[in-house]
Design goal:
Elements: E1 18-25, E2 34-40, E3 45-50, H1 63-66, E4 82-83, E5 92-93, H2 96-114, E6 119-123, H3 129-143, E7 148-150, H4 157-167, E8 185-188, H5 192-195, H6 197-209, E9 214-217, H7 223-226, E10 230-232, H8 239-252, H9 258-264, E11 265-266, H10 268-278, H11 281-288, H12 292-304, E12 309-312, H13 314-317, H14 322-335, E13 345-348, H15 355-361, H16 376-386, H17 401-409, E14 415-419, H18 423-426, H19 430-439, E15 442-447, E16 460-463, E17 472-475, E18 480-484, H20 497-506, H21 520-531, H22 545-551, E19 554-555, H23 560-570, E20 603-604, E21 623-628, H24 644-647, E22 654-657, H25 659-665, E23 672-676, E24 681-688, E25 696-700, E26 727-733, H26 736-746
Parallel strand pairs: 6-7, 6-14, 8-9, 8-12, 9-10, 11-20, 12-13, 14-15, 15-16, 21-25, 22-24
Antiparallel strand pairs: 1-2, 2-3, 4-5, 4-16, 17-18, 18-19, 21-26, 22-25, 23-24, 23-26
Helix pairs in contact: 3-15, 3-20, 3-21, 4-14, 8-11, 8-12, 8-14, 11-12, 17-19
The structure holds ligand MGD (2 copies), iron/sulfur cluster and molybdenum atom (MO).
Residues 26, 28-29, 31-33, 57, 61-62, 64-65, 196-198 line the site of iron/sulfur cluster (SF4).
Length: 749
């Protein structure tokens, strides 16, 4: 019998008059969920639903995806191009021609006066892949500055660098289906239930069908840690020590896969010697904070599992040992024979929706299709394809995003074009970034919102169209290329980023006359052509937009030969409903044959020795300051802060603090405090919770004028990614009325 139900009225959700459902891919995180947008008779997008036939999300969406259609008309959108001579003056509305002419003229002027590299361009992981390719063609082929990078330096650079060092190429080798096969999963610094909710759902389903151990390494008791069999609350920044100690045990106890090591790797002797001589768990425990018995236990569980996989996200990448951390995770999987097999992999969980697309095609750190500026044959290939002189390309990559800002301070860089990134909120050490912004002779901001913080410093603002106001692809964490259809026109007088790059290209034809693709689909076809080639992992030559939509996403590599084999399917019904998909299947795993992208074909085992160079707590600044995300917000809240049903969950900057630590300082739940670091200060509300230990504070980084006023952001030597998560601060009490007023001002709603 069910109590209390008899007299209850069921909740009724009014039917929404959807005339047509259109296909898209979510534009927030890199899970890559397929979404259908419901369009009304009047052409308005009024609702959304997950696509049940899509292999990634199987009909599910997280809260951000469900409410994503509210974005199109959200407040603060850019409506017309804006211009001003000085950044302290008011903006005046202008025409596209005038804004683009002015921008091109200023770029040329600065480059003529100070050299080609004195104008920098910083892009993002949130455009469509075709737009990345177009921007790359414009920058590498015409504007010609080498100081061109993306916000992926704050995000995935360490994963890219670690993959390249270990396997000779970027590219996550595994897939979500590996959850259904693995015998053990170890997650480093990744909080899937909040940051990749649908990947988490896939993991949870797999574990419900067949339990396997889940080991979570995170200094904080995250939601994922709560669901784990074993939680290792590691001392911040010391994951490489833990992994070295695990490898010490694995070698000592004869648990390594010697046959795999002998056949497919190089560098085993040095690695064995390093971990044997310096990383006995007896010593390691004092550095990484995990006791020696636990280390041995976890090493045995991992190495003895039928197959084992590791995933990681920002807890590893955002560290001074980010690239080393990634290489060391790869080491662990190589010595246990866990690469390229069912349930055995090193799967970096990507951040932004299209951080993969920018890595593959934007030319930010190289040339399109995972090609290198440093390789003559790659420079030749692309210059021939684009019809320009090879000498126009620099022989090595220029500055990363995190080196571009110091170069502004020192006067090397005079102008900057920001595309879909908001460094005033997202970069570490905000006081320093502000100063750099003020020093620029010329700043262009290209964003969907004109109220984005960085726009306060700009001279030209270019209003961009968002998501399904445009058309093109994303690549997700498991290398799946998926499509967003153009569902509605660009908002007011905003324009698709692709259009902006194409128009800008016309203004640089005096430098190089390029055959610029007319449409995003034409850009996709150029990419397909460039991806062809023997031995390349990144091959999309078998894909077309229509095929991608019909399959609800295809994983690369998917070659022309794969496509030819699938031709038989084309005779059957093309999937058009909400439930089905065509089985055009790319490759689920890389390196299944044990052949890597290094000159010898063997994977590199890399010695990772630990040096403690972090800013650690001391008497003056006694707390670790950790930062990250919550499920309802995305990044700097330019989007989710405008959606009432998301913003209401956390409208105010806050921090998690341990109740015992708070009691010692006389700090109460929901009071305001001031935090101080050696860089600056910030006022936040206190949320008391045992999620963090006594010596740690955690702040979601979504709020402006908050955590990044405090962070130092020391850089990883290989990837140049900042250590956002390891900083030292102290806590002070403040006047509650004053602080409350300040915080109210910062709420979007
Ligand atoms: N809701 C939501 N989802 C998102 C995003 C968002 O803004 N909002 N952003 C997307 C993007 S771009 C990214 S990059 C991903 C990020 O996804 P995640 O990396 O999962 O998210 P974070 O909260 O930044 O950090 C994860 C964890 O790292 C831990 N950590 C800190 N220091 C260390 C350490 O030294 N070692 C270890 N092992 N762990 C440590 C933190 O305690 C935190 O729990 O999320 C994506 N998904
Ligand atoms: N303390 C701390 N700081 C961090 C992190 C952390 O964990 N802790 N995480 C770091 C990470 S992993 C990341 S990825 C960065 C993210 O840092 P940012 O990239 O600076 O953050 P976003 O808010 O995503 O900025 C993207 C901008 O693009 C705009 N935009 C969205 N779609 C489009 C489009 O189609 N076209 C155009 N032109 N504009 C568009 C949005 O309005 C927004 O202003 O933050 C980093 N900063
Ligand atoms: S899990 Fe990520 S991709 Fe899927 S709906 Fe949520 S934000 Fe979008
Ligand atoms: Mo990210």
């Amino acid at each position: 019998m069910i109590f209390g139900r008899k007299n209850r009225k069921p909740i009724s959700i009014p039917a929404k008059p959807v005339k047509e459902w259109k296909y898209a891919t979510c534009n927030y995180c890199s899970t890559g969920c397929s979404i259908e947008l419901g369009v009304s008779e009047e052409g308005k997008v009024i609702t959304s639903r997950g696509h049940a036939g899509a292999d990634v999300n199987r009909g599910k969406l997280c809260i951000k995806g469900i409410l994503e259609h509210d974005l199109f008309n959200s407040p603060g959108r850019g409506t017309v191009p804006l211009m001003r001579d000085k950044s302290h003056l008011p903006f005046a509305a202008t025409s596209w021609d005038a804004a683009l002419d002015k921008t091109a003229e200023k770029i040329k002027q600065i480059q003529t006066k100070y050299g080609r590299d004195s104008f920098a361009i910083v892009s993002t992981g949130q455009l469509l892949t075709e737009e990345f390719y177009a921007l790359g063609k414009l920058v590498r082929g015409q504007i010609g500055t080498n100081n061109y990078d993306g916000n992926t330096t704050l995000c995935m650079a360490s994963a890219v660098s670690g993959y390249k060092r270990s396997f000779g190429s970027d590219g996550p080798p595994g897939c979500y289906e590996d959850f259904e096969h693995t015998g053990c999963l170890m997650a480093f610094g990744s909080n899937l239930p909040e940051q990749h909710p649908i990947i988490y759902w896939r993991l949870k389903e797999a574990r419900e069908k067949r339990h396997f151990p889940l080991i979570v390494v995170d200094p904080r008791v995250t939601m994922l840690a709560q669901f784990a069999d074993i939680h290792l609350p590691i001392t911040p920044g010391t994951d490489t020590v833990l992994i070295n100690a695990m490898m010490h045990v694995i070698f000592k106890e004869g648990l390594a896969d010697d046959e795999y090591i002998a056949k497919h790797t190089q560098g085993i002797d040095d690695l064995r010697e390093l971990v044997k001589s310096k990383y006995d768990p007896k010593q390691a425990q004092h550095i990484c904070g995990i006791d020696e018995d636990r280390i041995r236990h976890v090493a045995r569980v991992y190495a003895k599992a039928s197959s084992a996989m590791s995933i990681w996200t920002m807890g590893i990448n955002q560290s001074t040992h980010g690239s080393d951390g990634v290489s060391n995770i790869n080491n662990l999987n190589l010595i246990t024979g866990n690469i390229g097999i069912l349930g055995g992999t090193s799967l970096s969980i990507t951040g932004q929706c299209n951080a993969m697309g920018t890595r593959e095609w934007s030319s930010c750190s190289g040339l399109p299709g995972y090609r290198y500026l440093e390789k003559e044959q790659d420079r030749k290939h692309i210059s021939n394809f684009w019809g320009i002189d090879e000498s126009f390309f620099p022989p090595k990559r220029g500055l990363a995003q995190t080196d571009i800002f110091p170069a502004i301070e020192s006067g090397q860089i005079k102008g900057l074009w920001l595309v879909a990134t908001n460094p005033m909120t997202s970069m570490p050490n905000q006081p320093r970034i502000r100063k750099a912004m003020e020093m620029l002779d010329f700043l262009v901001v290209q964003d969907i919102y004109e109220d984005v913080e960085t726009n306060k410093y700009s001279h030209v603002f270019l209003p961009a169209a968002v998501w399904a106001e445009k058309e093109g692809c994303h690549t997700n964490t498991e290398r799946r290329v998926n499509l967003t259809r153009n569902v509605l026109p660009a908002y007011k007088d905003s324009k698709p980023d692709f259009w902006i790059f194409k128009e800008m290209s016309k203004r640089f034809e005096d430098r190089n006359k390029l055959n610029f693709p007319e449409t995003a689909e034409a850009a996709f076809n150029e990419m397909r052509e460039l991806s062809k080639g023997a031995g390349r992992t990144l091959d999309i030559s078998g894909m077309t937009w229509d095929k991608i939509e019909a399959a609800r996403g295809i994983q690369w590599p998917y070659t022309e030969a794969d496509a030819a084999a699938d031709e038989t399917l084309l005779g059957t019904v093309i999937a058009t409903d909400n439930k089905t998909r065509m089985e055009f299947k790319g490759s689920q795993r890389l390196y299944a044959d044990g052949v890597f992208q290094t000159p010898s074909g063997r994977a590199n085992l890399i010695c990772v020795d630990f040096v403690n160079n972090n800013e650690c707590p001391d008497d003056d600044y006694p707390f670790w300051l950790n930062s990250g995300r919550v499920v309802e917000h995305f990044h700097t809240r330019t989007r989710t802060g405008k959606i009432g049903n998301l913003n209401k969950f956390s409208p105010t900057p806050y921090m998690e603090m341990n109740p015992d630590a708070a009691a010692e300082l006389g700090i109460e739940h929901q009071s305001y405090v001031r935090l101080l670091s050696r860089r600056g200060d910030a006022v936040v509300m206190v949320q008391l919770t045992h999620r963090v230990g006594r010596d740690m504070l955690f702040i979601p980084f979504h709020f402006h004028d908050c955590v990044n006023r405090l962070t130092l952001g020391l850089l990883d030597p290989y990837s140049r990614q900042p250590a956002f998560k390891q900083n030292a601060v102290r806590v002070e009490k403040v006047d509650q009325n004053e602080a409350g007023r300040l915080n109210l001002e910062r709420r979007t709603f």
